[in-house]
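To whoever is covering the structure queue this week,

Two jobs came back overnight. Logging them here so there's a record in the thread.

Job A:
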Amino acid sequence: MEYERSHTGRLAEGPAHSFAFTALQLLETPAETEELIKATKQHLQAETKPGLSAQYSLIQSAIQSPTEATASTFLLRCQRNRDLDSLPPGTPAMVPGNYATVVAMLAHPFSRGSSHIASPVSSQYPEIKFNYLSHPLDTEIFARHLRLIERLFHGPTFTSLAKANGRRLPRSCPKPLETLEEARGILPINAATNYHPCGTCAMMKEEFGGVVDERLRVFGTGNVRVCDASVLPVIPRGNILAAVYAWAEKGAEIIHGSSLPKAATESAKAARRAFFCELCQKGYARMNEYEAHEGSYDHQHRKRLKEMKSLTRDPSLNQPSTSTGTRATKGGDGELRSLALPSTTPATGAKKKPVFRTVGAAPSAPTSSTPSAAPVSSLMGGGDASGAIRNGWASEAYDPGVVSGCSDDCGVCDPRTRGRGIVLPI
């Protein structure tokens, strides 16, 4: 393997095993913090572009806060040398020995680059300038984070892990940093990019130099939108990947909710009909959304109510004669009533599967417009099979299309839950 031969290649890069969002005031004195805040205010007062002033004020609030991170600090269990170009020709890329590298990554840089079309030929690359460390405040904040790392490694936690009188990297500064001037001096030859560019089509007011509005529309166009990292006016503090995912999801909601041409609207409707629930009259474009709907309480409740309705409807009403052991009648109030079948079949003696029925009083008994709720034992299939159970089909509130009407005497939900949605098995 390449790594075994020369300690180079993909395995030589090494992942970040320890990661922290670091506030400068963590290991700075109040006087040092006040010095940086004063320098920041001076630079912001000299800024004339309103768009940059708005962005810089956001970064300024992080600098002034004792808890807001101004850089990310992470530990790599490998060498990460960036100063090879400053060393004599022939200097090896790696140094023998076991090293760990601590890196500070600026959270919100002040420096701004540019991206411009360089040729009318579309195949030609644009001219991109990142202008790293072009703003003096970036160098100042970076240098202070290098000093913070130095102070951190002089603490008892890290001194107990490091080899006594061990060697240090980078080779361009093989001794502890003592001043901010030393830290500023090693930055140009040891700094590197972490590949998080954004902001070339920033979402800001047009008078601030913005490119897109809050609906992602490019200023001056009717329906041209941009939805990627370029609309972020300030680099996110963490890895830009997560911010782009969240931004894309929000952008999809914005675009989906906007008025679309008729053809696109019809296409969207067709997609939503791909997985359609006839019972609930809801459509979904994705199978996982449809499956989640099928498992929801609303759907299950409607489904059980529909099954209950078919089970409790007396088929003898549509036939000239009634079956043995069952007699149907119309109550004085027009409510459907039926008598329960015996709990056992005389021929076999086997128990019948308990079912819920709309059962009124015996024919000789006076009709009650509001039957009482059945005992729990009857609803669960036990007890007297001829017990009165009311499932509410005489009331419009219990229609399968209306779930909100569920109450204690629904006949589908367990009455012990007081209508809170525990559905009983049939």
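Job B:
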Amino acid sequence: MSAQEPAERPSSQQPSVLELCMSQQSHHQNGIRLSFNPEITEAITLENLPYHYCAVTGNVNLAAFLYTQKVPFSKGITIANFAADGKEGTTPWKKPVTLSPVDIADMAGHRPAALVLALIGAQVPLHWTRDNHCLYPKSFKSQVKTLMKVVTTSPFFASLPGPARMLLVDTLVISLAQKTVWSPLSLQVWKEQWEQCVGDDYGEAQQMPDAQPSDVKAAADNPNMASYQFQIRARPPNGRWRSSLLLGLAVGLVAAEAAHSTGCSGPMLNAAAFCAGVTRPISTSICLGISALLRKKMQRH
């Protein structure tokens, strides 16, 4: 090795992301906190989260109408935060867990809505023109090039005057954009028959204000929401499975009881099993049972 070449760091001195997670401190203890925000329990309505509402209902035509009305696209809502105080406990950090309208559409099983909302989020114009062609996806531009090669080599196209050629090309490309890029939308959208294609939400959608918050909807910490602290650990040797199981069970009991005391249900209770599963997979089933028992207890109350 020449004098100019720097010495390579030993692999043992190159930490992985997993090792960094394992070394985090929170509340003067090793671990990372997971705190849920109140938004996770709020209903998704057209008024407060218009594009998320389109996602959960699968109404792609409503999303297109809101887009034409210039209702700003919301990037997401923060439902939870991962946080810790850093490796030495002196560098606190927080990582929000956000759900965009596209995420909500995928979670709700509305793939066409997810495709339309992704286009809206990318600011792809609904109506194609020569000026906004650069804003369309690369795959569409490739299709247009292929189409133009076929059209321009036609003797019929060569016989047309200049203005007629431009009109023909524009008509073909507009039709291609509607049938490929915006294929989930109904034909009524292109005729602007909004009342027929949007449905019952058309009246309320017309009253939407011009300005909506376009950034991530964050929430202040709420002490009444469930909060968990867990530690990421390497898989223990076979001889330590009992202590790992007890640790996972303890974490699950604390998390499940916290969910019960805060009145949370469903995802909150299942988080107990998740926390336990971090330390030892076998304890997940035990904490799922705990969660089920607490869920029944909450139902009785």
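Note for Job B: The two ends are 73 Å apart (CA to CA).

Please reply-all if you pick these up so we don't duplicate work.
Q.
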